[in-house]
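Page 42, continued from yesterday. The earlier attempt failed because a stray header line got pasted into the input along with the sequence. Redoing it now with the clean sequence only.
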Amino acid sequence: MQRSAIAVGAVVAVAGAAAVAFTLPSLAGTEETGGSKSSNSTPGGLSPELLSAMKRDLGLSGEQAATRLARSEWAGGVSATLAAQTGEDFGGAWLASDGTTLKVAVTDSDAASAVKAAGAVPVLVKRSEAELDALKTKLDTAAAEVEGLTGWYVDVPTNKVVVVAQPGEKADALAVARRAGLSTDVVTVKVSSAKPKPLFDVRGADPYFINVGGGQARCSIGFSVTTGFVTAGHCGEEGTATTGFNNQAQGTVEFSVFPGNADMGFVAVNDDWDPRPVVNDFNGNELPVAGNTEAPVGAAICRSGSTTGTFCGTVLAKNQTVQYPEGTVTGLTRTDVCAEGGDSGGPWLSGDQAQGVTSGGSGDCTAGGETFFQPLNEILAAQNLTLVTTEGEGGAEAPPASAPPAEEGEEASACDALPVQRDGTINRAGQAQAQPNGGAYRARAGTHTACLDAPDGADFDLVLQKANNRGQFRTVAQSTGTGDKSLSFNGGTGTYRYVVVATSGTGAYNLGFNVQ
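This time it went through. Structure tokens are written below.
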């Protein structure tokens, strides 16, 4: 087996990464007026403004907030790795109510050891996350436009699908679930009088505007990307011109999805605008954006918007389908944070890690409410955008995975550095093996990185495949040719597998991979 450091160029497949524009971009070549000032650091590098909002909304001290956010970032990395490592046995991950204990559901007791080794608490469940997502997808078809239902989502802590119904509609909700093929033991009906709507405000105010129906509508910028910013899809159709907070021409909506499988948009700005890695808290401060590690269910999270400023709360669920008056939107994240009209498109942060852009919700910031956001990494994966970030470090990292030591006199393989390790042997040319362990793994939107250490003299190809809605796998990235292989792929949420193909030759191989 070849043990020299791999020098093969990575194959980058299409599937895009989209980035978001967090705050108001500053005007290039002009002096900013009424601008924001940079924040001094506090415990754990947490900005004072975000700390103040977390104290107010979550009742946390400075040290508690820093600890919780650092743990959240660590948990995000560990969850992604365990999802790949446990494959089809993965049942989802969440932070417990203490904000620090990471729990990981698995369907096989043998997978529990990997969870424990990663520093998390295993929970044995009946259904994998992939199975729950498949059941929820059935509801996307059966329950769409059904009056009295406002949404449904996968609830990983209870290992069930939750249907949200208006008062008096519980029986109808259960009937719809049965028609979709969901048994009663997998469904929970939550009764709520809340009626979610996109947080879209048609009035002239900060920070950016679009022309709608002969008038102007206001939304909030999400996060900066290298060529503009991301925002909500309902904040303008493709081709719509945007105007900045100073009433100057800003850019054009180049990409917009709403309703449907997302609420996401991208605005390409002109040369007068400079995308910056900050979020405006509307209190004269700038909150830094250091990265985009996705926070798990149970994590503390904060959002900012041009109507209400900055408010904080907790991630309650992911992959929620919401029924707005304009239509159904899938794949949103549910929170207990308040928001109001005009906050749409605005950024969500977990510490200094970008999470998503505001879609809609119910209630307000006087009485309280719940708000849904479009995950950022899905937008990045849809348009191949690059998030603009600071150069600072973004909190705690996942503990390094143990790699098999190199034999004496050999260099360590680049594959050994990746946290998920799988070995295999192919005894006949033309054969192929699926990994992990002949199955697949569930992954959130992010970057799949892998390398294959092939046998000497053999030609083994490395293929990454993703399952479609019918459970059929199609190739999304591959690395071919002689020698060792490596690939990188930015993909959306879904079920993936690697396939090692022996084009010629036989022997033992080592596959290392991860999802970030």
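Notes: The two ends are 28 Å apart (CA to CA).
Reminder to self: strip header lines before submitting.
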